[in-house]
Amino acid sequence: MKMQDIIQRYFWNIRWTGDLDVMAGMIIVKDGKEYDCSLRKEDITDHVQVNGQDIPLHSLEKWKFYYELIGRDAKVQMIDAYQRQTNIISALQRKYHPCGMIVYESFQDGSEGKNSDFDALLLTDTKQLFHDASIIQKTEMDV
Fold first, then answer.
1. Inter-axis angle of helices 60-69 and 73-96, nearest 10
2. Which of 16, 65, 74, 139 sits 20 to 30 Å CA-CA off 84?
3. Which carries the bigger pLDDT value, residue 89 or residue 11?
4. Residue 98 CB neighbours (<10 A)
5. What does residue 68 show for φ and ψ, rounded to 5 degrees?
């Protein structure tokens, strides 16, 4: 995707220990079609406070779609990995109601792949020991 295929009214790149792109009024042009990426009220899924200012956030699904349009495969994979891990953790929390959870190995360091298992230690208020090797999100558990 060439920069002339992305129309934006405003753009800021903010760097700290990470990298954050802030865009407003963005339109992506792909195959002759314009995709308006404006932030609409119904697409806001969360808010953060930055220096006392409320910042509304677009849904991850929308960002994944935008990144797919512009061919940013690494960003798409990052969102997929985050959603996969979040869904696994939520399922384990619903199933075991742990007081805490320690995720280790590939899901902890971000190196997980399609065939990685999910390694975690669940801390519970019971004295029961267990091992869960079930499948969640097409991922084998090692809990």
1. 150
2. 16
3. 89
4. 17
5. -65, -40
The reply to whether 13 and 65 lie within a common domain is: yes
Positive or negative CA dihedral for 8, 56, 45, 122?
positive
Across 30-55, average pLDDT:
87
Q: Look at 65 and 4; give whichever has higher pLDDT.
A: 65
Are 93 and 133 in the same domain?
yes
Residues 86 and 134 in one domain: yes
Contacts of 118 (CB under 8 A, 6+ apart): 85, 88, 103, 107, 136, 139, 140, 141, 142, 143
The better pLDDT of the pair 2, 89 is held by 89
Percent above pLDDT 70 for the chain: 83
**What letter does residue 93 receive in the DSSP assignment?**
H
